[in-house]
Protein backbone atom coordinates (compact mmCIF):
# COMPACT_ATOMS: atom_id res chain seq x y z
CA UNK A 1 0.00 0.00 0.00
CA UNK A 2 2.78 2.42 1.04
CA UNK A 3 4.57 1.78 -2.26
CA UNK A 4 1.52 2.50 -4.38
CA UNK A 5 0.83 5.73 -2.51
CA UNK A 6 4.40 6.91 -3.01
CA UNK A 7 4.20 6.08 -6.71
CA UNK A 8 0.94 8.00 -7.01
CA UNK A 9 2.35 11.01 -5.23
CA UNK A 10 5.52 10.85 -7.31
CA UNK A 11 3.39 11.03 -10.46
CA UNK A 12 1.37 13.84 -8.92
CA UNK A 13 4.58 15.58 -7.99
CA UNK A 14 5.81 15.29 -11.58
CA UNK A 15 2.51 16.64 -12.92
CA UNK A 16 2.61 19.47 -10.44
CA UNK A 17 6.16 20.45 -11.37
CA UNK A 18 5.46 20.10 -15.07
CA UNK A 19 2.49 22.43 -14.93
CA UNK A 20 4.43 24.93 -12.84
CA UNK A 21 7.42 25.12 -15.18
CA UNK A 22 6.30 27.95 -17.48
CA UNK A 23 5.88 30.19 -14.45
CA UNK A 24 9.46 29.64 -13.35
CA UNK A 25 11.16 32.28 -15.47
CA UNK A 26 12.88 33.28 -12.27
CA UNK A 27 15.42 35.59 -13.91
CA UNK A 28 12.64 38.11 -14.57
CA UNK A 29 11.17 37.82 -11.07
CA UNK A 30 11.84 40.32 -8.31
CA UNK A 31 14.32 38.83 -5.85
CA UNK A 32 11.88 38.88 -2.94
CA UNK A 33 10.08 35.84 -4.37
CA UNK A 34 11.50 32.38 -3.80
CA UNK A 35 12.16 30.83 -7.23
CA UNK A 36 9.13 28.54 -6.99
CA UNK A 37 6.65 31.38 -6.57
CA UNK A 38 4.20 31.99 -9.37
CA UNK A 39 3.29 35.61 -9.73
CA UNK A 40 -0.42 34.91 -10.12
CA UNK A 41 -2.75 32.47 -8.40
CA UNK A 42 -3.38 29.22 -10.35
CA UNK A 43 -7.16 29.78 -10.38
CA UNK A 44 -9.29 30.04 -13.52
CA UNK A 45 -7.94 30.89 -16.99
CA UNK A 46 -4.46 32.44 -17.12
CA UNK A 47 -5.72 35.71 -18.67
CA UNK A 48 -7.71 36.76 -15.59
CA UNK A 49 -6.93 40.14 -14.01
CA UNK A 50 -5.24 39.92 -10.61
CA UNK A 51 -4.24 42.65 -8.18
CA UNK A 52 -1.95 42.30 -5.17
CA UNK A 53 -1.60 44.98 -2.51
CA UNK A 54 1.09 44.52 0.13
CA UNK A 55 1.41 46.49 3.36
CA UNK A 56 3.83 46.08 6.28
CA UNK A 57 2.01 45.57 9.59
CA UNK A 58 5.10 45.51 11.83
CA UNK A 59 8.76 44.69 11.19
CA UNK A 60 8.92 41.29 9.47
CA UNK A 61 5.13 41.01 8.96
CA UNK A 62 3.39 41.81 5.69
CA UNK A 63 -0.22 41.52 4.57
CA UNK A 64 -0.84 40.84 0.87
CA UNK A 65 -4.43 41.18 -0.35
CA UNK A 66 -5.05 39.36 -3.62
CA UNK A 67 -8.13 39.83 -5.80
CA UNK A 68 -8.30 37.65 -8.89
CA UNK A 69 -10.88 37.37 -11.65
CA UNK A 70 -13.99 39.16 -12.80
CA UNK A 71 -17.30 39.46 -11.03
CA UNK A 72 -20.99 39.33 -11.74
CA UNK A 73 -22.19 40.12 -15.25
CA UNK A 74 -18.72 39.37 -16.66
CA UNK A 75 -19.46 35.70 -15.83
CA UNK A 76 -22.40 34.64 -18.00
CA UNK A 77 -21.39 31.00 -17.42
CA UNK A 78 -22.09 31.21 -13.67
CA UNK A 79 -25.60 31.18 -12.26
CA UNK A 80 -27.74 30.17 -9.29
CA UNK A 81 -29.56 26.86 -9.16
CA UNK A 82 -31.22 24.63 -6.58
CA UNK A 83 -29.49 21.40 -5.56
CA UNK A 84 -32.10 18.90 -4.40
CA UNK A 85 -31.00 17.07 -1.28
CA UNK A 86 -31.67 15.49 2.06
CA UNK A 87 -30.24 18.32 4.17
CA UNK A 88 -27.46 17.48 6.63
CA UNK A 89 -28.23 20.76 8.34
CA UNK A 90 -31.57 19.55 9.71
CA UNK A 91 -29.98 17.02 12.02
CA UNK A 92 -26.83 19.00 12.79
CA UNK A 93 -26.41 22.39 14.46
CA UNK A 94 -23.15 22.79 12.51
CA UNK A 95 -23.79 25.34 9.74
CA UNK A 96 -20.94 23.71 7.79
CA UNK A 97 -22.47 20.20 7.78
CA UNK A 98 -22.74 19.23 4.11
CA UNK A 99 -26.21 18.19 2.92
CA UNK A 100 -26.74 14.74 1.40
CA UNK A 101 -26.62 15.80 -2.22
CA UNK A 102 -25.03 12.89 -4.12
CA UNK A 103 -26.77 9.70 -5.24
CA UNK A 104 -26.07 6.77 -7.54
CA UNK A 105 -27.14 7.17 -11.17
CA UNK A 106 -30.43 5.24 -10.86
CA UNK A 107 -31.66 7.17 -7.78
CA UNK A 108 -30.65 10.49 -9.34
CA UNK A 109 -32.55 9.68 -12.56
CA UNK A 110 -35.56 8.56 -10.54
CA UNK A 111 -35.59 11.76 -8.46
CA UNK A 112 -35.19 13.93 -11.58
CA UNK A 113 -38.12 12.14 -13.27
CA UNK A 114 -40.33 12.73 -10.21
CA UNK A 115 -39.34 16.40 -10.16
CA UNK A 116 -40.12 16.81 -13.87
CA UNK A 117 -43.51 15.21 -13.29
CA UNK A 118 -44.13 17.83 -10.61
CA UNK A 119 -43.28 20.61 -13.05
CA UNK A 120 -39.64 21.29 -12.13
CA UNK A 121 -36.85 21.75 -14.70
CA UNK A 122 -34.60 19.02 -13.26
CA UNK A 123 -31.26 17.76 -14.55
CA UNK A 124 -28.77 15.11 -13.42
CA UNK A 125 -25.05 15.99 -13.31
CA UNK A 126 -22.09 13.66 -12.89
CA UNK A 127 -19.57 14.72 -10.21
CA UNK A 128 -15.94 13.68 -10.61
CA UNK A 129 -13.26 14.71 -8.17
CA UNK A 130 -9.46 14.93 -8.57
CA UNK A 131 -7.14 12.16 -7.42
CA UNK A 132 -5.09 13.07 -4.33
CA UNK A 133 -1.96 11.55 -2.75
CA UNK A 134 -4.08 8.98 -0.88
CA UNK A 135 -7.47 8.86 -2.63
CA UNK A 136 -8.26 7.72 -6.17
CA UNK A 137 -10.96 10.32 -6.80
CA UNK A 138 -12.97 9.88 -10.01
CA UNK A 139 -16.76 9.62 -10.03
CA UNK A 140 -18.19 10.22 -6.57
CA UNK A 141 -21.86 10.38 -7.55
CA UNK A 142 -24.62 12.29 -9.29
CA UNK A 143 -26.35 15.49 -8.22
CA UNK A 144 -29.84 16.63 -9.12
CA UNK A 145 -30.45 20.31 -9.78
CA UNK A 146 -33.43 22.33 -10.90
CA UNK A 147 -33.53 25.62 -12.78
CA UNK A 148 -31.01 28.25 -13.81
CA UNK A 149 -31.42 31.65 -12.16
CA UNK A 150 -29.57 34.93 -12.32
CA UNK A 151 -30.06 35.77 -8.65
CA UNK A 152 -30.06 34.13 -5.25
CA UNK A 153 -33.55 35.52 -4.63
CA UNK A 154 -35.06 33.66 -7.59
CA UNK A 155 -33.21 30.47 -6.64
CA UNK A 156 -34.54 30.81 -3.09
CA UNK A 157 -38.13 31.12 -4.29
CA UNK A 158 -37.62 28.00 -6.44
CA UNK A 159 -36.42 26.28 -3.27
CA UNK A 160 -39.63 27.38 -1.50
CA UNK A 161 -41.68 25.99 -4.42
CA UNK A 162 -39.76 22.68 -4.08
CA UNK A 163 -40.48 22.58 -0.34
CA UNK A 164 -44.17 23.10 -0.97
CA UNK A 165 -44.04 20.08 -3.30
CA UNK A 166 -42.40 17.95 -0.58
CA UNK A 167 -38.73 18.18 -1.62
CA UNK A 168 -35.75 19.77 0.11
CA UNK A 169 -32.80 21.52 -1.43
CA UNK A 170 -30.43 24.44 -1.18
CA UNK A 171 -29.79 27.43 -3.40
CA UNK A 172 -26.24 27.13 -4.75
CA UNK A 173 -24.06 29.24 -7.03
CA UNK A 174 -22.37 27.23 -9.78
CA UNK A 175 -19.14 29.17 -9.14
CA UNK A 176 -18.75 27.05 -6.00
CA UNK A 177 -18.59 23.79 -8.01
CA UNK A 178 -14.87 24.09 -8.65
CA UNK A 179 -14.72 24.24 -12.46
CA UNK A 180 -11.27 25.21 -13.80
CA UNK A 181 -12.86 27.50 -16.40
CA UNK A 182 -14.58 29.77 -13.83
CA UNK A 183 -13.45 33.39 -13.98
CA UNK A 184 -13.75 34.13 -10.26
CA UNK A 185 -13.61 36.37 -8.43
CA UNK A 186 -11.37 35.12 -5.63
CA UNK A 187 -10.27 37.07 -2.57
CA UNK A 188 -7.22 35.71 -0.81
CA UNK A 189 -5.38 37.38 2.08
CA UNK A 190 -1.82 36.40 3.00
CA UNK A 191 0.14 37.16 6.16
CA UNK A 192 3.89 36.53 5.82
CA UNK A 193 6.18 36.48 8.85
CA UNK A 194 9.89 36.74 8.07
CA UNK A 195 11.84 35.51 11.13
CA UNK A 196 14.94 37.47 10.05
CA UNK A 197 13.14 40.79 10.60
CA UNK A 198 10.44 39.73 13.07
CA UNK A 199 10.84 41.01 16.64
CA UNK A 200 7.35 40.11 17.82
CA UNK A 201 5.86 36.85 18.98
CA UNK A 202 3.87 34.14 17.20
CA UNK A 203 1.46 32.72 19.72
CA UNK A 204 -1.62 30.48 19.85
CA UNK A 205 -4.54 31.33 22.12
CA UNK A 206 -7.64 29.40 23.20
CA UNK A 207 -8.89 32.30 25.35
CA UNK A 208 -9.68 32.25 29.07
CA UNK A 209 -10.52 28.51 29.04
CA UNK A 210 -10.32 25.48 26.78
CA UNK A 211 -14.04 24.81 26.78
CA UNK A 212 -15.68 28.04 25.59
CA UNK A 213 -15.61 29.68 22.18
CA UNK A 214 -14.38 33.22 21.47
CA UNK A 215 -14.12 35.11 18.19
CA UNK A 216 -10.71 35.56 16.57
CA UNK A 217 -11.28 39.31 17.13
CA UNK A 218 -11.75 38.76 20.90
CA UNK A 219 -8.69 36.50 21.11
CA UNK A 220 -6.60 39.06 19.17
CA UNK A 221 -7.85 41.99 21.26
CA UNK A 222 -7.17 40.36 24.62
CA UNK A 223 -3.52 39.82 23.61
CA UNK A 224 -3.20 43.17 21.77
CA UNK A 225 -2.22 41.25 18.62
CA UNK A 226 -1.25 43.02 15.40
CA UNK A 227 -2.89 40.27 13.36
CA UNK A 228 -4.57 36.88 13.82
CA UNK A 229 -6.24 34.02 11.98
CA UNK A 230 -8.63 31.34 13.22
CA UNK A 231 -6.80 28.06 13.76
CA UNK A 232 -7.73 24.47 14.63
CA UNK A 233 -10.91 22.41 14.41
CA UNK A 234 -13.07 22.44 17.54
CA UNK A 235 -16.26 21.10 19.07
CA UNK A 236 -19.31 23.14 18.05
CA UNK A 237 -22.26 20.97 19.04
CA UNK A 238 -22.78 20.28 22.80
CA UNK A 239 -23.68 16.69 21.78
CA UNK A 240 -20.09 16.32 20.51
CA UNK A 241 -18.38 17.45 23.72
CA UNK A 242 -17.63 20.85 25.22
CA UNK A 243 -18.11 23.61 22.61
CA UNK A 244 -14.77 25.35 22.05
CA UNK A 245 -12.65 22.31 22.92
CA UNK A 246 -9.98 21.73 20.23
CA UNK A 247 -10.91 18.61 18.22
CA UNK A 248 -7.30 17.49 17.98
CA UNK A 249 -3.88 18.35 19.36
CA UNK A 250 -3.50 21.57 21.33
CA UNK A 251 -0.15 22.61 22.81
CA UNK A 252 -0.10 26.12 24.27
CA UNK A 253 3.09 27.60 25.73
CA UNK A 254 4.59 24.10 25.65
CA UNK A 255 1.75 22.41 27.56
CA UNK A 256 -0.28 19.59 26.01
CA UNK A 257 -3.87 20.62 26.86
CA UNK A 258 -5.72 18.64 24.18
CA UNK A 259 -4.70 15.25 22.79
CA UNK A 260 -4.06 14.56 19.08
CA UNK A 261 -6.45 12.90 16.67
CA UNK A 262 -4.15 9.91 16.04
CA UNK A 263 -1.64 10.64 13.31
CA UNK A 264 -3.25 13.80 11.97
CA UNK A 265 -1.14 16.78 10.92
CA UNK A 266 -0.64 19.85 13.07
CA UNK A 267 1.02 23.23 12.70
CA UNK A 268 4.01 23.72 15.02
CA UNK A 269 5.04 27.32 15.68
CA UNK A 270 7.57 28.99 17.95
CA UNK A 271 7.47 32.48 19.50
CA UNK A 272 10.26 33.81 17.28
CA UNK A 273 8.57 32.45 14.10
CA UNK A 274 11.59 30.30 13.28
CA UNK A 275 11.32 26.60 12.51
CA UNK A 276 7.59 26.52 11.71
CA UNK A 277 6.71 23.00 10.59
CA UNK A 278 3.89 20.59 9.88
CA UNK A 279 4.10 17.28 11.72
CA UNK A 280 1.77 14.37 12.38
CA UNK A 281 1.33 13.51 16.05
CA UNK A 282 0.31 10.60 18.24
CA UNK A 283 0.30 10.52 22.03
CA UNK A 284 0.19 8.27 25.06
CA UNK A 285 -0.90 9.22 28.55
CA UNK A 286 -0.82 7.34 31.83
CA UNK A 287 -1.50 7.80 35.49
CA UNK A 288 0.70 6.03 38.00
CA UNK A 289 -0.15 5.31 41.62
CA UNK A 290 1.57 3.08 44.16
CA UNK A 291 2.71 0.15 42.11
CA UNK A 292 0.30 0.36 39.19
CA UNK A 293 -0.37 2.38 36.04
CA UNK A 294 -3.51 3.11 34.02
CA UNK A 295 -3.66 4.34 30.41
CA UNK A 296 -5.40 7.66 29.73
CA UNK A 297 -7.90 8.19 26.89
CA UNK A 298 -7.89 11.96 26.72
CA UNK A 299 -7.04 15.39 28.08
CA UNK A 300 -9.53 18.16 28.95
CA UNK A 301 -12.55 16.78 27.10
CA UNK A 302 -15.96 15.33 27.92
CA UNK A 303 -15.49 11.59 28.65
CA UNK A 304 -17.05 9.30 26.06
CA UNK A 305 -17.11 11.81 23.16
CA UNK A 306 -14.16 11.79 20.75
CA UNK A 307 -14.60 14.56 18.16
CA UNK A 308 -13.00 13.75 14.78
CA UNK A 309 -12.30 10.25 16.21
CA UNK A 310 -8.71 8.97 16.02
CA UNK A 311 -8.83 7.98 19.70
CA UNK A 312 -8.14 4.62 21.35
CA UNK A 313 -9.02 0.99 20.58
CA UNK A 314 -12.62 0.34 21.63
CA UNK A 315 -13.97 3.63 20.26
CA UNK A 316 -17.11 3.33 18.10
CA UNK A 317 -17.28 3.36 15.10
CA UNK A 318 -13.49 3.66 14.71
CA UNK A 319 -10.21 4.61 16.34
CA UNK A 320 -8.98 6.00 12.99
CA UNK A 321 -9.50 9.70 12.21
CA UNK A 322 -13.00 10.47 10.87
CA UNK A 323 -13.51 14.17 10.35
CA UNK A 324 -16.64 15.87 11.73
CA UNK A 325 -17.77 12.61 13.33
CA UNK A 326 -18.02 12.16 17.10
CA UNK A 327 -16.85 8.69 18.09
CA UNK A 328 -17.97 7.29 21.43
CA UNK A 329 -16.58 5.08 24.19
CA UNK A 330 -18.44 4.36 27.46
CA UNK A 331 -15.23 3.38 29.31
CA UNK A 332 -12.79 6.26 29.52
CA UNK A 333 -10.19 7.84 31.80
CA UNK A 334 -9.67 11.56 31.13
CA UNK A 335 -7.32 14.01 32.87
CA UNK A 336 -8.30 17.63 33.53
CA UNK A 337 -6.26 20.75 34.27
CA UNK A 338 -7.69 24.09 35.49
CA UNK A 339 -7.24 25.37 31.90
CA UNK A 340 -10.36 23.39 30.94
CA UNK A 341 -12.78 25.85 32.56
CA UNK A 342 -14.54 26.74 35.79
CA UNK A 343 -16.07 23.29 36.23
CA UNK A 344 -15.08 19.85 34.98
CA UNK A 345 -17.80 17.99 33.02
CA UNK A 346 -20.69 16.57 35.04
CA UNK A 347 -22.09 13.06 34.69
CA UNK A 348 -22.07 9.50 35.92
CA UNK A 349 -18.75 8.01 36.95
CA UNK A 350 -15.99 8.90 39.37
CA UNK A 351 -13.67 11.90 39.67
CA UNK A 352 -10.46 11.91 41.70
CA UNK A 353 -9.49 15.50 42.53
CA UNK A 354 -5.77 16.22 43.03
CA UNK A 355 -4.21 19.21 44.78
CA UNK A 356 -1.11 21.07 43.54
CA UNK A 357 1.05 18.30 45.09
CA UNK A 358 -0.74 15.54 43.12
CA UNK A 359 -2.44 14.18 46.23
CA UNK A 360 -6.01 12.90 46.02
CA UNK A 361 -8.02 15.33 48.16
CA UNK A 362 -11.56 14.42 47.04
CA UNK A 363 -13.46 11.62 45.31
CA UNK A 364 -16.62 12.77 43.52
CA UNK A 365 -19.41 10.60 42.21
CA UNK A 366 -21.21 11.77 40.11
CA UNK A 367 -18.23 13.56 38.57
CA UNK A 368 -17.93 17.32 37.89
CA UNK A 369 -16.99 20.40 39.90
CA UNK A 370 -14.23 22.91 40.56
CA UNK A 371 -10.50 22.14 40.86
CA UNK A 372 -8.14 23.37 43.58
CA UNK A 373 -5.66 26.09 42.50
CA UNK A 374 -2.80 24.41 40.62
CA UNK A 375 -4.60 21.09 40.98
CA UNK A 376 -6.04 18.64 38.48
CA UNK A 377 -8.42 15.71 38.29
CA UNK A 378 -9.07 12.34 36.69
CA UNK A 379 -12.53 11.34 35.52
CA UNK A 380 -13.49 7.71 34.94
CA UNK A 381 -16.60 6.34 33.25
CA UNK A 382 -18.00 2.83 32.76
CA UNK A 383 -15.51 0.06 33.36
CA UNK A 384 -12.73 2.54 34.14
CA UNK A 385 -14.46 3.54 37.41
CA UNK A 386 -13.28 0.36 39.17
CA UNK A 387 -9.72 0.93 37.86
CA UNK A 388 -9.62 4.50 39.19
CA UNK A 389 -11.22 3.47 42.51
CA UNK A 390 -8.42 0.94 43.06
CA UNK A 391 -5.65 3.35 42.02
CA UNK A 392 -6.82 6.51 43.78
CA UNK A 393 -7.91 6.23 47.41
CA UNK A 394 -7.97 9.50 49.37
CA UNK A 395 -4.47 10.82 50.15
CA UNK A 396 -2.85 8.69 47.43
CA UNK A 397 -0.10 10.32 45.35
CA UNK A 398 -0.69 10.03 41.60
CA UNK A 399 1.54 10.98 38.71
CA UNK A 400 -0.03 11.89 35.37
CA UNK A 401 2.34 11.82 32.41
CA UNK A 402 1.75 12.41 28.72
CA UNK A 403 4.06 11.78 25.77
CA UNK A 404 3.76 13.34 22.34
CA UNK A 405 5.40 11.59 19.36
CA UNK A 406 5.98 12.83 15.81
CA UNK A 407 5.46 10.79 12.62
CA UNK A 408 8.93 9.25 12.93
CA UNK A 409 7.99 8.02 16.40
CA UNK A 410 10.38 10.45 18.09
CA UNK A 411 9.34 11.92 21.41
CA UNK A 412 8.49 15.63 21.24
CA UNK A 413 8.97 17.80 24.33
CA UNK A 414 7.76 21.28 23.41
CA UNK A 415 9.38 24.26 25.16
CA UNK A 416 7.23 27.03 26.69
CA UNK A 417 7.90 28.96 23.49
CA UNK A 418 6.13 26.39 21.31
CA UNK A 419 2.48 26.06 20.29
CA UNK A 420 0.92 23.23 18.27
CA UNK A 421 -2.45 23.59 16.52
CA UNK A 422 -4.56 20.78 15.05
CA UNK A 423 -5.11 20.77 11.29
CA UNK A 424 -5.77 18.64 8.20
CA UNK A 425 -5.53 17.57 5.50
CA UNK A 426 -1.94 18.16 4.44
CA UNK A 427 -1.71 20.21 1.23
CA UNK A 428 1.97 20.57 0.29
CA UNK A 429 4.95 18.51 1.41
CA UNK A 430 8.58 19.21 0.39
CA UNK A 431 7.39 21.63 -2.29
CA UNK A 432 5.06 19.11 -3.93
CA UNK A 433 1.29 18.97 -3.82
CA UNK A 434 0.47 16.28 -1.26
CA UNK A 435 -3.23 16.21 -0.32
CA UNK A 436 -4.24 13.60 2.29
CA UNK A 437 -8.04 13.47 2.81
CA UNK A 438 -8.24 9.68 3.23
CA UNK A 439 -5.47 9.53 5.86
CA UNK A 440 -6.99 12.43 7.78
CA UNK A 441 -10.57 11.12 7.90
CA UNK A 442 -12.18 13.26 5.19
CA UNK A 443 -13.26 10.27 3.09
CA UNK A 444 -16.41 9.00 4.80
CA UNK A 445 -17.26 5.39 3.93
CA UNK A 446 -20.69 5.23 2.28
CA UNK A 447 -21.15 9.01 2.36
CA UNK A 448 -19.72 10.65 -0.78
CA UNK A 449 -21.86 13.76 -0.15
CA UNK A 450 -19.70 14.67 2.81
CA UNK A 451 -16.55 14.62 0.65
CA UNK A 452 -18.39 16.52 -2.08
CA UNK A 453 -19.43 19.29 0.31
CA UNK A 454 -16.26 19.54 2.38
CA UNK A 455 -13.32 18.61 0.11
CA UNK A 456 -14.51 18.85 -3.49
CA UNK A 457 -16.59 22.04 -3.45
CA UNK A 458 -15.21 25.52 -3.01
CA UNK A 459 -15.50 26.84 0.54
CA UNK A 460 -13.85 29.53 2.63
CA UNK A 461 -10.44 28.16 3.73
CA UNK A 462 -7.73 28.99 6.24
CA UNK A 463 -4.28 27.60 5.36
CA UNK A 464 -0.85 27.79 6.94
CA UNK A 465 2.66 26.73 6.14
CA UNK A 466 6.28 27.63 5.64
CA UNK A 467 8.12 28.70 2.50
CA UNK A 468 11.56 27.73 1.21
CA UNK A 469 13.29 30.56 3.09
CA UNK A 470 11.60 29.78 6.41
CA UNK A 471 8.87 32.39 6.40
CA UNK A 472 5.58 31.44 8.06
CA UNK A 473 2.66 32.09 5.70
CA UNK A 474 -0.97 32.31 6.90
CA UNK A 475 -3.72 32.45 4.28
CA UNK A 476 -7.47 33.02 4.29
CA UNK A 477 -9.66 32.67 1.20
CA UNK A 478 -13.22 33.95 1.35
CA UNK A 479 -15.98 31.79 -0.11
CA UNK A 480 -19.70 30.90 -0.27
CA UNK A 481 -20.34 34.16 -2.05
CA UNK A 482 -20.56 35.46 -5.62
CA UNK A 483 -17.97 38.04 -4.59
CA UNK A 484 -15.40 35.36 -3.73
CA UNK A 485 -15.85 31.77 -4.88
CA UNK A 486 -13.65 30.04 -2.29
CA UNK A 487 -11.30 27.10 -2.86
CA UNK A 488 -11.65 23.34 -3.08
CA UNK A 489 -9.08 21.41 -1.03
CA UNK A 490 -7.08 20.67 -4.22
CA UNK A 491 -7.20 24.35 -5.21
CA UNK A 492 -6.06 25.23 -1.67
CA UNK A 493 -2.97 23.07 -2.23
CA UNK A 494 -2.33 24.69 -5.62
CA UNK A 495 -2.68 28.18 -4.12
CA UNK A 496 -0.34 27.30 -1.22
CA UNK A 497 2.26 25.95 -3.67
CA UNK A 498 1.96 29.01 -5.91
CA UNK A 499 2.57 31.25 -2.87
CA UNK A 500 5.90 29.45 -2.48
CA UNK A 501 4.97 27.21 0.45
CA UNK A 502 7.26 24.22 0.86
CA UNK A 503 4.95 22.63 3.46
CA UNK A 504 1.32 23.58 3.96
CA UNK A 505 -1.75 22.35 5.80
CA UNK A 506 -5.46 23.16 5.91
CA UNK A 507 -6.82 24.70 9.13
CA UNK A 508 -10.51 25.09 10.07
CA UNK A 509 -12.41 26.76 7.22
CA UNK A 510 -16.00 27.45 6.23
CA UNK A 511 -17.71 29.88 8.59
CA UNK A 512 -14.66 29.79 10.89
CA UNK A 513 -12.31 31.42 8.33
CA UNK A 514 -11.30 34.80 9.77
CA UNK A 515 -8.36 37.17 9.46
CA UNK A 516 -7.99 40.12 11.83
CA UNK A 517 -5.49 42.97 11.51
CA UNK A 518 -5.23 45.89 13.93
CA UNK A 519 -8.42 44.88 15.73
CA UNK A 520 -10.60 44.59 12.61
CA UNK A 521 -11.86 41.59 10.65
CA UNK A 522 -10.54 42.22 7.13
CA UNK A 523 -12.08 39.25 5.30
CA UNK A 524 -15.80 38.46 4.95
CA UNK A 525 -16.74 35.51 7.21
CA UNK A 526 -19.45 33.39 5.56
CA UNK A 527 -21.85 32.68 8.45
CA UNK A 528 -25.06 34.70 8.18
CA UNK A 529 -24.54 35.74 11.80
CA UNK A 530 -21.10 37.21 10.99
CA UNK A 531 -17.82 36.33 12.71
CA UNK A 532 -17.98 32.89 14.31
CA UNK A 533 -16.62 32.20 17.81
CA UNK A 534 -13.90 29.54 17.44
CA UNK A 535 -11.76 27.18 19.53
CA UNK A 536 -8.35 28.80 19.13
CA UNK A 537 -6.47 31.33 17.01
CA UNK A 538 -2.92 32.04 15.89
CA UNK A 539 -1.79 35.52 16.93
CA UNK A 540 1.01 37.79 15.73
CA UNK A 541 2.06 39.95 18.69
CA UNK A 542 4.08 43.17 18.50
CA UNK A 543 6.60 42.15 21.18
CA UNK A 544 8.57 39.05 22.13
CA UNK A 545 7.02 37.03 24.95
CA UNK A 546 8.94 36.41 28.16
CA UNK A 547 8.15 33.01 29.65
Strand percent estimate: 25-35%
How widely separated are the two ends?
45 Å
Low-confidence segments: 1-37
Q: What's the alpha carbon Rg, rounded to whole Å?
A: 24 Å
Number of helices: 7
Mean pLDDT: 91
Taking the sheet with the most strands, its summary is: 8 strands, antiparallel
Structural class: alpha+beta
Question: What strand order characterises the main sheet?
Answer: 1-2-7-29-28-30-26-27
The share of residues in helices is: 10-25%
Tell the overall outline.
Answer: globular
Tell how many strands the DSSP assignment holds: 33
Q: What's a concise summary of this model?
A:
With 547 residues, the chain is α+β, with helices and mostly antiparallel strands. 14% of the residues lie in helices and 32% in strands.
Written overview of the protein:
With 547 residues, the chain is α+β, with helices and mostly antiparallel strands. Helix content is 14%, strand content 32%. The protein is built from seven helices and 33 strands. The protein has helices at residues 2-20, 105-117, 152-164, 216-222, 384-391, 448-456, 489-498; strands at 50-58, 61-68, 80-84, 122-129, 138-149, 169-173, 186-193, 201-205, 227-230, 250-252, 255-258, 265-270, 277-280, 282-288, 293-295, 298-299, 305-309, 321-328, 333-336, 350-354, 360-364, 376-380, 399-405, 411-412, 418-422, 426-429, 432-433, 461-467, 472-477, 501-506, 515-517, 520-521, 537-541. The strands form seven sheets. An eight-stranded antiparallel β-sheet has the order 1-2-7-29-28-30-26-27. Strands 8-33-9-31-32 form a five-stranded antiparallel β-sheet, covered by helices on one side. Strand 23 (399-405) and strand 24 form a beta hairpin. The longest helix has 19 residues, at 2-20. The chain is globular and about 75 Å long. The model is unreliable at 1-37 (pLDDT under 50).
Amino acid sequence: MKKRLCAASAVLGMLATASALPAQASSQQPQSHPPSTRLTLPLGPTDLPETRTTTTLQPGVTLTRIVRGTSGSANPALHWTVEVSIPGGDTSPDPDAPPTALKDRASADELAAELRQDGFDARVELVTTPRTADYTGGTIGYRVRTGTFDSQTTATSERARLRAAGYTGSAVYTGWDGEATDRGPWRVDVLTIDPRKFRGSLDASYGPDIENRETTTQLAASAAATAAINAGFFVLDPKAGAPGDPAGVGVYDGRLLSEPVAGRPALVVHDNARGTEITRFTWKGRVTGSGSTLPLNGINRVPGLIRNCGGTAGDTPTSQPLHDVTCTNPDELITFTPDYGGHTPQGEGLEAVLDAHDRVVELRSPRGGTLPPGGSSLQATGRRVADLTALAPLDAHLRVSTTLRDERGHRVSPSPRTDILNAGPELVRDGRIHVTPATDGMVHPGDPSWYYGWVHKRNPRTLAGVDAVGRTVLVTADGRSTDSLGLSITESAEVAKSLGLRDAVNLDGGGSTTMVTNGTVINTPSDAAGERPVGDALLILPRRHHH
